[in-house]
Design brief:
single chain; alpha/beta; eight-stranded mixed beta sheet; about 45% helix
Length: about 350
């Protein structure tokens, strides 16, 4: 069984899947009686979009002293947001004035997020991540999707290799929030990238397709997929207000609707594909039923909202305790690496 972990995008709401992963890692440590057990040890393939892409890369970062083992725990990964979210989503008075609060330019400067990504990854290369993975982005110059994949280096060489910190900037360059990222491969090719959430906020289908094309052409019966969401906007848009919106009125709602809709349709397709031949138990989707007191805005990194998101994440993990126990049972079964070749 090839075990796949997929994590949605959602900005600061990445705290939610982060808490679920902390709970899962804790269960793995208890079941194996190994306090050093890590998420990366038990999944064979990873996928992430935006905040999910950043979490994925942190989870797969190799240790400085033991390259075969991961450097960071699930708790270390989510702490990027818990400890630094208010810096990442902060804006200077000057930038706020110059950008007209995000109307004329991106809402936030990338200085803070780039400094934290450098702190986590430094000069780490995509090819050096511990497991095969796919991180989504969109190249606005070539007008096509851009998938950053650890496994492509072995097949394509330096043209498919990038610094991980640049990959994370690319996948999280949300339109209107952060500046488009100009990413350079180690072979010198440039890509003008924005947040992968514009087409795959839930990257699970991307992961399925990638693994489906691995050696042996595995199908749904050969895969186990854990897909974790970041919650979504629950407040409805009033028809009487929305019917007369122009471009300015639709900017934020359309981004929210597009990302939520993309995540929902991916879940629909995955559910249909895995249930078609009786493999529904091989697909687990964990998504908070409600954000409760948390603000759904992807950039609300106030201490109050961060605390609320932590609580939502913990409650989601608790409500899915039985599902996580089943996930652990599968993860502790025989491993079946995902192998790609020419």
């Amino acid at each position: 069984m090839k075990k796949i972990l997929s994590i949605d995008g959602g900005g600061i709401r990445g705290i939610i899947p982060g808490q679920v992963l902390i709970a899962l890692e804790d269960k793995l440590q208890k079941m194996t009686n190994n306090p050093n057990a890590r998420i990366a040890d038990y999944f064979d393939f990873f996928a992430g979009t935006s905040t999910g892409g950043i979490l994925t890369c942190i989870l797969l970062c190799p240790s400085d002293t033991d390259p075969g083992h991961t450097k960071f725990s699930a708790n270390d990964a989510v702490n990027l947001y818990v400890n630094n979210g208010h810096h990442i989503f902060s804006v200077s008075l000057l930038h706020k004035i110059v950008s007209l609060d995000g109307i004329l330019e991106e809402k936030y400067e990338a200085t803070a997020i780039e400094s934290y990504l450098k702190e986590y990854f430094d000069k780490l290369r995509l090819s050096e991540l511990l497991k095969p993975c796919i991180i989504t982005s969109y190249d606005i110059h070539r007008r096509q999707t851009k998938f950053f994949a650890q496994q492509d280096f072995a097949i394509e060489g330096k043209v498919a290799d990038f610094y991980v910190k640049d990959v994370c900037r690319a996948t999280s360059a949300a339109p209107t929030y952060f500046q488009t990222e100009l990413v350079k491969s180690l072979s010198g090719e440039y890509y003008a990238c924005i947040d992968g959430g514009v087409f795959a906020n839930n990257p699970t289908l991307c992961a399925y397709s990638e693994v489906r094309n691995a050696d042996g052409s595995p199908t749904a019966k050969d895969m186990f997929v854990l897909s974790i969401g970041t919650g979504s906007q629950e407040t409805p848009y009033d028809y009487d207000k929305a019917k007369n919106w122009g471009a300015d009125g639709w900017v934020k709602p359309i981004i929210d609707i597009m990302m939520s809709g993309a995540a929902e349709v991916t879940d629909y397709h995955m559910t249909m594909m895995f249930s078609a031949n009786g493999n529904e138990a091989n697909y687990v989707r964990i998504q908070p039923s409600s954000l409760k007191n948390a603000d759904p805005q992807m950039d609300d990194a106030s201490p109050k909202n961060i605390a609320a998101l932590i609580e939502v994440g913990k409650e989601t993990a608790k409500s899915c305790d039985k599902e996580l126990d089943k996930v652990v049972d599968v993860l502790l079964s025989t491993s079946d690496p995902v192998i790609f070749s020419k």
